[in-house]
Amino acid sequence: MGKLLCDSSIVDTLQPASPPLVSWRESTSIAVVDLSEQTTTWENVSGLEEQQRRHLLKFHAKGVLWKHPEDKAWSVVFRLSHGGDVEADGNCLFTASQKAMGDAGMVDARELRRRTVRRFLEDLGSTSDENRQMIESAIRHMYSPDLKSGWGIHVVQEVKMLANKSDRESFDSAICELVNLGIQRESAAESIYKERCIAVDDGPSWIKYMSISGSPDDEYDIITLQYTEEGLFTVDENREGHAAAFGDDLAIECLATEFRREIYVVQAHGSDAMVDEDNCVFFLPHRPRGQITEPPFFLFMKGTGWCGAGADHYEPLIAHPSLISPEKVAFIL
User: Fold this and answer.
1) Which domain of life is it from (predicted)?
2) What is the residue-wise DSSP string for 10-51?
3) Are 20 and 291 in contact, with CB atoms under 8 Å apart?
């Protein structure tokens, strides 16, 4: 699951640490291969409206044309197939990316998460103070929003907090003390968590947050405070510690930079999103902050809302290099 920002250009202000440059021509070999065993036909993908399915079938049959943004001599036509379901456990960005990347198949989802966080840390350390402030403002917007605004877009807003696993017992004790004084349980929990937990509102706290995969080895548990315009709605205390940090635009940009390839999120919106049929499927590009030396990979999202309106589920797309003529493709990226 993940959140999308309306303006992902904010993350372009990060300046990547400079790993050795690799020649595009030396590193990439495009072959037409049969990946049918790795894919699911669009007719069998659940949860799609007919208008969405028609567009996705067209992208598979006619292909999409990708051109290297700098080296105009390099272009590839891809046919896009669904890569199958992945668990909706909060790790889906990384699980789906692992399946979609193909050549990174030996890297598991947890390693992809670690490399994403490491890339963010390295790049944040090399950027200017002004750019760092812009990035941290975006983080606050996603995870510690101003609850006095935003209600024209959101019905529910979430505040993310990080609780050190070793402190959970003391937190419970403090909450019980407030309950014994006559304070409602959820209000007491809100008070203690806001006072003693770490808010996800800057670069260092984002690193702690995005490192959480929902495993017993995590240092922190995610606490989620949910609000409506009337006030506190509920507190998700994540008692079992299974909640993982959803991937967001910052994480996708870091993945793109780490692997030197563009990542396209293919969103399919239904009739409830108030888009016409011609625009119900669209491509959101995420470019690496540096040289592109590998072909792109693609992720699929059945959209549930616009621009940070909540968590969405990523699924892998398998990109089949094709000999289809570029003049006959369904879409040019």
Assistant:
1) Eukaryota
2) GGGG-----PPP--HHHH--------GGG-B-GGG-TT--HH
3) no
Tokens for 2? 């993940």
Size of the chain in residues: 333
Contact 316, 93 (CB under 8 A): no
Phi, psi dihedrals of residue 249, rounded to the nearest 5°: -60, -40
pLDDT digits (tens, 9 = 90+) for 50-92: 888 888 998 898 999 999 988 878 889 999 999 998 898 899 9
* Predicted structure pTM score: 0.84
Give me the mean pLDDT over the 275-291 stretch.
Answer: 84
| CA 166-169-174 angle, 5° bins | 125
| Calpha distance 102→281 (Å, rounded) | 24
For the chain, state the CA radius of gyration. Answer: 21
The DSSP 8-state label assigned to residue 278 in this structure reads G
User: Which residue matches tokens 């598979």?
Assistant: 60
Q: Mind listing the domains of the chain with CATH numbers?
A: 2-17+39-124+247-332 (3.90.70.80), 142-236 (no CATH)
| Distances from the Cα of 191 to the Cα of 144, 169, 173, 225, 319, angstroms | 15, 16, 13, 11, 48
> Which of 212, 261, 258, 263 has the alpha carbon at shortest distance from 4?
263
User: Residue 333: how many CB atoms within 10 A of its CB?
Assistant: 17
